[in-house]
Amino acid sequence: xxxxxxxxxxxxxxxxxxxxxxxxxxxxxxxxxxxxxxxxxxxxxxxxxxxxxxxxxxxxxxxxxxxxxxxxxxxxxxxxxxxxxxxxxxxxxxxxxxxxxxxxxxxxxxxxxxxxxxxxxxxxxxxxxxxxxxxxxxxxxxxxxxxxxxxxxxxxxxxxxxxxxxxxxxxxxxxxxxxxxxxxxxxxxxxxxxxxxxxxxxxxxxxx
Length: 208
Fold this sequence. Notes:
Blueprint: H1 11-26, E1 29-33, E2 42-47, H2 54-66, E3 69-75, H3 76-81, H4 83-86, E4 90-93, H5 99-111, E5 116-120, H6 139-147, E6 152-162, E7 170-177, H7 185-206
Parallel strand pairs: 1-7, 2-5, 2-6, 3-4, 3-5
Antiparallel strand pairs: 6-7
Helix pairs in contact: 1-2, 5-6
C-alpha cells in the first residue's frame, strides 16, 4: 500500500510559494541554465540528490520553467512523519518492499498526464556534493518503460552550489531534455553523467 499524492487547496500553494521564497532568501543568486521545448507532455525530472534542499530547488525550477503540478517520491516513514508533504504532491515508496512496484507504477501513471511533473532522484539517497559519478538504480528505467518514452519529456537536472566572493552561496540549476535512444539503466546513467560532468566543467569555468 502506498500513500498517493494529494494537492491540498491551501497547503500546496503555500508549499510552492515557500519553496521559491526560501530558496531566494538563502542564496545570493539563483541561476537557471537550460532550454526547454514544451511538447505538451508530462515531465519526468531526474536530478542529483545532494541535500535537504533538493526538492525545494526542483519546485523553484518547475515554477520558473515547466509550470506543472508537482509530484515527488518520498520514503513512506518520512512521508508519514512529515504529512504536509503528502498534501503537496508527495507519494510514498518503501525500499525492499513489494509495494515498491506499486509506487513505480503510480509514478509512471502520473507522468503520462501532460499537466504533471514527477521529480525522481535516480540514486535513491542523498550523496555528497563532491560525488563524481551518479549511479542509477533501476527505478528510472522502469518508470520510462512503463509510461512509454514517447509519452513524456525526460529532463536532466543538476544542482550546483558555489560561494565565490559572497557570504551567501550562488545556486545554479542546470537542466536539459534528453531523448533516449535506449532506456536501459546503463544508457540513462551514462547520458546523465555526461551532462553532469558538462555542468561541473561549466561551473568551474564560470569562476575563473
